[in-house]
Amino acid sequence: MTEERRSPGRPRSQSSREAILTAAIQLVAEVGYAGLTIDGLASRAGVGKQTIYRWWASKADVLLEAGAALADVRVPVQDRGSYEADLRAFLKASYRIVNQPQMADLLRAVMAEAQLNPDFGDRFRSGFLQRRREALAVITARARDRGDLPERPAPGTVADVVFGTIWYRVLATRQAFDKRLVEDLITVLVPPVA
Amino acid sequence: MTEERRSPGRPRSQSSREAILTAAIQLVAEVGYAGLTIDGLASRAGVGKQTIYRWWASKADVLLEAGAALADVRVPVQDRGSYEADLRAFLKASYRIVNQPQMADLLRAVMAEAQLNPDFGDRFRSGFLQRRREALAVITARARDRGDLPERPAPGTVADVVFGTIWYRVLATRQAFDKRLVEDLITVLVPPVA
DNA sequence: ACTATACGAGACCGGGAGTCTTGTAATATC
DNA sequence: GATATTACAAGACTCCCGGTCTCGTATAGT
Predict the structure, then answer these.
(1) Closest to B167 (Cβ–Cβ): which among A113, A172, A185?
(2) What contacts B141, CB < 8 A, 6 or more positions away?
(3) DSSP 8-state secondary structure symbol assigned to residue B74
(4) DSSP state of A76
(5) DSSP letters of B75-132?
(6) B53-96 confidence digits (pLDDT tens)
(7) Residues of B from 81 to 140 whose C-beta is within 7 A of strand C: which are they?
(8) How far is CA B56 from CA A70, A103, B17, in A?
(9) Lowest mean pLDDT among A59-73, A123-137, B26-40
(10) Residues B148, B82: contact at Cβ < 8 Å?
(11) Whose CA is closest to B56, among B9, B110, B96?
């Protein structure tokens, strides 16, 4: 599909790219997002500042790409037979991602930057948040076809509740996203017997 | 209760304090939190920078205090007879606060800063987020006494779901917190018949 | 060979955060 | 009233960081 037309000139250095992504994840964990500087990132990665600016629009875009690599644990959307089973699988995959060591710090940094930098905010919403909602929408759409989906709340509200609760724990209470929360969310979103 | 022991020296200027809080709210709406500078804030308020640094630890602390003033619409905790009625009153009061003109921008700024500045994050959590949770806890505790509270989810999860969903809309989707969401949250949290 | 692009290194500039200084104003105590 | 104490507005000052630019070099296609 992506048969890249090779243009003349020196090609992009993949080793530099990976060094930058790795250094970004490390540095956010070490010094926090506020302490993360482009100079520090460049020196840790052993690259020139210009190499960062050439490929990314901001520190946050570097982190977003690093996070995508860190979380390529694809959220499963296979049919598990029922809305409840599908939802449980989705939630478990989500906490597997969120509970990765440096992932919470990374998510906090990226969400913060999205509030400060409107352009990045747009990229973050359309390139990350929206994709997560669409993954969940596959599950609710299937449940609707199956006749499995409760009347209320609307699928959009399901997404608001699921992602809202997870993000709130990451940003606000800093509690772990544990299996207990998975079951509580299912209790709340899947009607008892119907 | 607060019979302040007056110390010698010129007292704090209340007019400067109010000018700073007002200017902070205006400027966040005008130039965004990222564009809000201490110099700009001081000059808009007609005060010296030192006056800001003397009373607040950061821009975000100014905003937090300004927001408290803006939202002194106290969330009602009167007993309305049932868990559902109490919860509905709480949610309606919450959206009345969140939907104030400059409130969403202010909340976004403060939550972002809480991720960047750990010290402010602690103050924000204990001085704001925790208080909101406690207000809601009054309602769930009363429901428990009344025999009105569902077994699941636990009160803590109720708070996670309520505040999480609201914050997610503010930070992520930027959808309005409307009456539709109030009813959806009640549908989700209050069991149909019990 | 020639052109085009990327690279690491680092100089450079502008702006904002935070501190400090100066001269003045307001209050308590004597 | 005199003195001590604290707050005030204004602005100078330093430091650090983001972002751009320059330089010499490296790696590709033509």
Answers:
(1) A172
(2) B155
(3) P
(4) P
(5) PP----SSHHHHHHHHHHHHHHHHTSTTHHHHHHHHHHHHHH-HHHHHHHIIIIIHHH
(6) 999 999 999 999 999 988 765 666 789 999 999 999 999 999 99
(7) none
(8) 38, 32, 10
(9) A59-73
(10) yes
(11) B110
What does each C-alpha distance from A158 to A84, A92, A139 come to in angstroms?
A: 13, 16, 11
Please say whether the beta carbons of B59 and B24 come within 8 A. yes
Cis? peptide before A101, omega within 30° of 0? no
Q: Distance from residue A55 (CA) to nucleotide C7 (C1'), in Å?
A: 13
The H-or-E segment that residue B181 falls in is helix B179-189
How many CA atoms within 13 Å lie on the side-chain side of A127?
15
The distance between the two most distant Cα atoms of chain A, rounded to a whole number of Å, is 64
Question: 0.90 cut: is pTM over it?
Answer: yes
**Paired tokens of A194:** 């119907």
Residues A7-17: tens digit of each pLDDT: 888 999 999 99
Q: How far apart are CA A174 and CA A191, in angstroms?
A: 28
Instruction: Using the CA of B7, give the nucleotide whose C1' is nearest.
Output: C28
Q: Which of B114, B164, B169 sits opposite A165 (nearest CB)?
A: B164
* Joined tokens for residue A2: 């992506």
Q: Which residues contact A142 (CB under 8 A, 6 or more apart)?
A: A79, A83, A86, A148
Q: Round to whole Å and give the CA distance between B36 and B29.
A: 10
Nearest to B23 by CA among B63, B50, B55: B63
**Which one of B160, B175, B178 makes the best mutation probe of the A interface by having the most chain A beta carbons within 10 Å?**
B160
Maximum Cα–Cα distance for chain B, whole Å? 64
Query: Residue B153, SS3?
Result: coil
Calpha distance A22→B142 (Å, rounded):
50
Q: Work out if A54's Cβ lies within 7 angstroms of strand C.
A: yes
User: Rg (Cα) of chain A, in Å, rounded?
Assistant: 19
Measure CB to CB from residue B164 to each of A34, A111, A164 and give the nearest one: A164
